[in-house]
Hints:
Layout (H helix, E strand, L loop, with lengths): L10 H23 L4 E5 L10 E5 L11 E2 L9 E4 L15 E2 L2 E9 L8 H16 L3 E6 L11 H6 L15 E7 L5 E7 L9 E3 L4 E4 L2 H10 L3 H8 L4
Parallel strand pairs: 6-7
Antiparallel strand pairs: 1-2, 2-6, 3-11, 4-9, 5-6, 7-8, 8-9, 10-11
Helix pairs in contact: 1-4
Amino acid sequence: MPVHDWTRVEAGAFHDFHQSWAMEIRYALNAGLLPPGYIAMVEQVTGRPIPDVVTLQTREPKKGSEGGIAVTEAPPTARVISRIETLTYAKRADRVVIRHGYGTVVAVIEILSPGNKSSHSALRSFVEKAADILNQGVNLLVIDLFPPTPRDPQGIHKAIWDELGDEPFEAPPGKPLIVASYLAGEIPTAYVESVGIGDPLPSAPLFLSETRYIRAPLEAAYQSAWTRYPAELRAIIERTYP
């Protein structure tokens, strides 16, 4: 299913879809995509950040049964892969490990809403939240289905990545939307895909550790949420297509 032009409806209409999409991602992850010992939960407070979906490790996996895909056996691919060999500022002396009642948070999925980029303050808050998550050693997947604004002229990935380093990034023409998967660790790594209106969502890696990941069910969950979206709003959005 192609990515729709969400600028055709008000922010509240996307928020409704956003909530449904996050739940569909949660359902898919908990229905067998996550290895044993991991669970996904929606909108759990993990300290300062409030993410859309969090992945929790409920118990230590047995040796040799971590689950997921081994990075060394099938390295994730993306249009752009960036690594920060040295950070522009020192990491905190004591790494903050975010814990939840059901286990340690190992990954976060964030779906941007228009409000996240509606002002300099809102954008700054989101970027700082993303940097906090990565600095705490938690992996991050960011989905931005809205075009860049004057506040993030090179897109949300560049805004986040500038908190860690200063590397050039430019989306190809006609593909201003971003799906970026971040591996936290000693050498932070970003796997970035650029998407255009009408494109399918890419199969992005969702890292469970520095050595294991799964494929996030973004496209399938998007389709499921879309079929449940109000028909009147679907009609408005789909008028952009012939």
